[in-house]
């Protein structure tokens, strides 16, 4: 609910459990007055104090004698640039005279039913939203900022986005546009970021805010394996189930910046948006620039409560899931089994074995097109390699379908190999400045997706393939970071637009696929989890989480990922042992339990498995089918912290009505004389009794407060699953 109080001028945004408030003061500065646990909406600007602070000057209209009012000390909704606030600016606009000054003052607000839409950008959607649009204007240049707030009351989610509109007479150059600014009174907080690298993504790093600015971001043109566009601010004492925390997720798949500043007066400012490095957008009079959306959750009951809000909102109001209301198919992908070396019979053999064990979708990965026998060639030539697959998809797909399976296809549309017909014909379609040889990544170059004709060409080629057979799924991969970002289609003074135009181009292609193939499931991928972000999830409701399929490493990678993103979005497969990334051997049972915390599937040659392993696979597939709704739609609880607890990792999925739960537990390397352990469960109904794995009955309260006794495990990396069903 959004309330405008005419009497005191406050705009108050209420969700079920939180309240957010702002107010334009007498000088037209839009003050941020509160974000926290729900309040009744009284005017909280009275908490703001004014004092003469040295080196924090005052706006001109205050005159020379009132020195107590300073932009440098006030909490604001969207900070200005160069006019007396010396903390992080939200936007920077280079005016025609070369100045970088932007003073934004209140010019009106409007409350609307429904959710605003952002042209060409991903955004949360749904019927139950309300929108607040607030206009701020720079009286000198005519630049206007439209601050957009979406309120999803039920999920405790507030979205923010910004449009910058040039209502002046001169062209301006935007150098920085953050999607939101969030000021906090008091900086005694921890910042949690999710960091890592290829094959070790999204490990939480938590540290108290120190004086000055601390940032994470990506200069790679993608959201990146290294840092995720999701951060948390919380109290020093905030824990899993208690304390206040704020989560912020940016719906953007390109280079981003998240900066938190602890100011001299121990306040905190958090901003997040497109990375300003190499960003410069020319805005002619009358033009608008739209910054990507961000989603905010404030949780009064710790990190777990925040996670569950994001999970529900993403599941219900961000994923455009062709499988909505149905279970996603259990898949097998041939990559780790064959890499580039296969023919139709080999693929059908893998699919047949998988189908006999209950697997439902066969995915043909890299190597099916052009002259692609290694990663040195072929990208850009999206025609079926008839040497490997005579008769093309027209011949292969019916053979897969005859097994009762769906068919899926891997693509990497953004890339080009120098050894390809496409590159030989259009070398200028790759990003790269004239006369300067480009850096390679995985021996490939990046196509200039900021250009419409490049996208159109790739799209038409893909369409021909997709229309040649019934394709139920695609995996959109992207295997390098952007370098040499220069586009032949733009003049020298507009090259700062290419990074962002590239992302818009990727979104345009994904949107076309979504529009033309609405029933086709899309999985995102960037060398595993290099583009695992909320923006991508709008187009691809599942994302391959990591190229590291080692079950023990996946415990932490998936746990870090699930701080924001729900299980149904996390691509997770059982692969062969010794694991290709780590050389570690884990039992098949354990690999299955770990992969069931995501979109379950296999990535190995099942014909090489022993009869016992195949029997395990058959059971796993059935278990997953039986429990998929619980995993994909239930509430997720972290029962241990796998980043610190080495003896075992445990997590739980609980159905919304709390009548069912699935508890999964995986042990670390074997230890002698293990203590007797009882695992305390969460989220159950204390008043109900639950039957555990079809056997003994336990009270919900007993399971949560006293725990469930764990067996004394023998051997490394063991796993158990407990299925709980309420009996009363
Ligand atoms: C990287 C992906 O993450 C893998 O799963 C696989 O699709 C390869 N690319 C294929 O080149």
Assembly status: single chain
Helix count, DSSP H or I runs of 4 or more residues? 12
**What would the average pLDDT be, to the nearest integer?**
97
The end-to-end distance, rounded to whole angstroms, is 37 Å
Specify the biggest β-sheet.
9 strands, antiparallel
> Which small-molecule species are bound to the chains here?
(2R,3S,4R,5S)-2-(hydroxymethyl)piperidine-3,4,5-triol
**Within the largest sheet, what's the order of strands?**
6-7-8-9-19-15-14-11-12
Q: Which regions are unreliable across 5 or more consecutive residues at pLDDT < 50?
A: none
Residues in β-strands, percent:
25-35%
| Secondary structure: helix percent | 10-25%
Offer a few descriptive terms.
37 strands; 728 residues; alpha+beta; binds (2R,3S,4R,5S)-2-(hydroxymethyl)piperidine-3,4,5-triol; nine-stranded antiparallel β-sheet; globular; eight-stranded parallel beta barrel
What would your notes on this structure say?
This protein is α+β, with helices and mostly antiparallel strands and 728 residues long. Bound molecules: (2R,3S,4R,5S)-2-(hydroxymethyl)piperidine-3,4,5-triol.
């Amino acid at each position: 609910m959004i309330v405008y109080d005419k009497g005191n001028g406050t705009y108050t945004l209420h969700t079920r459990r939180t309240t957010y408030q702002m107010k334009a003061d007498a000088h037209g500065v839009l003050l941020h007055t509160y974000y926290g646990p729900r309040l009744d909406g009284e005017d909280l600007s009275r908490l703001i104090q004014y004092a003469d602070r040295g080196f924090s000057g005052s706006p001109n209209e205050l005159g020379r004698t009132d020195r107590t009012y300073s932009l440098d000390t006030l909490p604001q909704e969207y900070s200005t640039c160069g006019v007396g606030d010396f903390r992080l600016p939200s936007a920077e606009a280079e005016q025609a005279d070369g100045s970088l000054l932007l003073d934004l003052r209140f010019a009106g607000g409007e409350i609307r039913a429904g959710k605003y839409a952002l042209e060409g950008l991903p955004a949360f959607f749904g019927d139950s939203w309300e929108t607040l649009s607030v206009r701020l204007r720079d009286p000198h240049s005519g630049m206007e900022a439209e601050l957009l707030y979406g309120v999803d009351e039920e999920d405790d989610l507030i979205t923010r986005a910004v449009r910058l509109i040039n209502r002046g007479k001169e062209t301006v150059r935007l150098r920085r546009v953050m999607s939101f600014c969030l000021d906090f009174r008091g900086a005694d907080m921890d910042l949690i970021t999710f960091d890592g690298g290829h094959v070790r993504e999204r490990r939480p790093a938590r540290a108290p805010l120190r004086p000055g600015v601390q940032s994470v971001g990506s200069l790679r043109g993608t959201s990146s394996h290294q840092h995720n566009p999701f951060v948390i601010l919380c109290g020093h004492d905030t824990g899993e189930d208690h304390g206040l925390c704020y989560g912020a997720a940016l719906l953007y798949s390109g280079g981003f910046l998240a900066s938190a500043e602890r100011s001299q007066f121990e306040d905190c400012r958090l901003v997040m948006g497109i990375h300003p490095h190499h960003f410069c957008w020319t805005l002619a009079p009358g033009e608008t620039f739209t910054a990507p959306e961000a989603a905010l959750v404030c949780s009064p009951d710790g990190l777990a409560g925040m996670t569950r809000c994001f999970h529900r909102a993403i599941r219900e109001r961000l994923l455009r899931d062709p499988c909505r209301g149905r279970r996603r198919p259990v898949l097998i992908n041939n990559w780790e089994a064959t890499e580039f070396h296969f023919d139709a019979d080999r693929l059908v053999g893998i699919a047949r074995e998988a189908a006999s064990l209950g697997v439902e979708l066969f995915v043909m990965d890299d190597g099916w097109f052009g002259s692609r026998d290694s990663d040195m060639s072929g990208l850009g030539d999206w025609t079926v390699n008839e040497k490997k697959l005579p008769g093309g998809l027209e011949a292969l797909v019916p053979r897969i379908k005859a097994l009762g399976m769906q068919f899926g296809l891997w693509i990497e549309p953004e890339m080009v190999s120098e050894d390809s017909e496409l590159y030989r014909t259009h070398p200028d379609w790759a990003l790269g400045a004239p006369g300067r040889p480009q850096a390679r990544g995985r021996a490939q170059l990046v196509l200039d997706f900021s250009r419409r004709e490049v996208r159109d060409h790739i799209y038409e080629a893909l369409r021909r393939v997709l229309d040649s057979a019934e394709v139920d799924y695609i995996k959109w991969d992207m295997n390098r970071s952007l370098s040499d970002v220069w586009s032949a289609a733009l003049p020298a003074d507009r090259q700062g637009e290419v990074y962002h135009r590239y992302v818009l181009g990727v979104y345009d292609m994904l949107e076309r696929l979504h529009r033309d193939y609405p029933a086709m499931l899309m999985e995102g991928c960037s060398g595993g989890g290099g583009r695992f972000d909320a923006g991508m999830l709008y187009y691809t409701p599942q994302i391959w989480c990591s190229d590291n399929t080692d079950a023990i490493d996946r415990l932490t990678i998936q746990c870090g990922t699930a701080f924001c993103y729900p299980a149904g979005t996390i691509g997770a497969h059982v692969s062969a042992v010794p694991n290709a990334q780590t050389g570690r051997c884990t039992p098949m049972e354990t690999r299955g339990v770990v992969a069931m915390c995501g979109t379950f599937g296999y990535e190995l040659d099942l014909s090489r498995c022993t009869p016992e392993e195949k029997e395990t696979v058959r059971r796993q597939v059935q278990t997953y089918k039986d429990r998929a709704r619980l995993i994909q739609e239930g509430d997720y609880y972290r029962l241990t912290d796998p980043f610190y607890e080495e003896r075992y990792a445990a997590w739980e999925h609980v159905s919304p009505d709390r009548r069912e739960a699935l508890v999964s537990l995986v042990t670390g390397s074997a230890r002698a004389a293990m203590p007797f352990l009882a695992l305390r469960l969460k989220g159950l109904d204390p008043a109900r009794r639950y039957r555990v794995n079809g056997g003994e009955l336990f009270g919900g309260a007993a399971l949560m407060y006293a725990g469930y006794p764990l067996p004394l495990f023998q051997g490394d990396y063991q796993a158990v699953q407990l299925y709980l069903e309420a009996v009363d």
